[in-house]
Amino acid sequence: MTRIYVGPTALYSLGQVGELSLLDAFDGDIVIPEPVIDEVQVEPTATNLAEYREGDVDTGVDEAHVDQAESLLGDADLGAAVTVLAGVLAHRDSDDRSAVAVVSEDRTVRRMGQGLGAEVTSSFGVVVRAAIEDKYLKPTQAKRIVRRIDQHGMHLTGELRERAVGEVA
Questions:
Q1: Which CATH number fits domain 2-165: 3.40.50, 2.170.120, 2.115.10, 1.10.1040?
Q2: How far apart, in whole angstroms, are the C-alpha atoms of residue 134 and residue 145?
Q3: How big, in percent rounded to 5, are the helix, strand and coil portions of the chain?
Q4: Backbone angles phi, psi at 103, to 5 degrees
Q5: Known InterPro entries for this protein (predicted)?
Q6: CA-CA 20 to 30 A from 130: which of 46, 71, 124, 140?
């Protein structure tokens, strides 16, 4: 079963525009570790996250792997995002790259997650996936969401924005 670990940067991106429910487009269990939740204090993301958590969201932290994740990171201080990598370490499967996934905007988390065998995407990837998987999210709606995320601080270069919008179409 796929476990999708969501980091604080992706929560911020999707939460600022009220689109955390797009995470449900994934086939698997959404995991938002408790330390990641605690790190999200900016409004309206915090309120949107509290409402999203009323659904079936796992908040467990794989404590046995936190020290290993910190060791692998060396001097890089990722704050609560280290628990996302601990989840990857706990659930990765060399025979099944889809056993664990990471949703994050943080380059270090993304590179490390991918190197450890996780599928990796960003909030923009979440929107694209939702548009492809969800017959109720039209491409025009997805394009608006991408633009709103971009306007709320997770800036894309013009080329990347057009690529994300193009993939939605």
A1: 3.40.50
A2: 14
A3: 60, 10, 30
A4: -115, 110
A5: PIN-like_prokaryotic
A6: 46
Q: If the chain, 169 residues long, is cut into consecutive pieces of 10 residues, what is the mean pLDDT of each piece?
A: 89 94 92 94 95 90 90 82 93 85 92 93 89 80 84 56 53
Backbone dihedral angles phi then psi of residue 3, each to the nearest 5 degrees? -115, 125
Q: Which single residue is written with the structure tokens 């995002």? A: 81
Closest CA to 34 of 68, 1, 11, 2: 11
| CB within 8 Å of 138: residues ≥ 6 apart | 131
**Type of residue numbered 87:** G
- Give the span between the Cα atoms of 107 and 128, in whole angstroms: 19
Q: Residue ranges of the domains in the chain?
A: 2-165
- Assigned token pair, 125: 């990837």
- Full-prediction pTM beyond 0.90? no
Give the amino acid at 33.
Answer: P
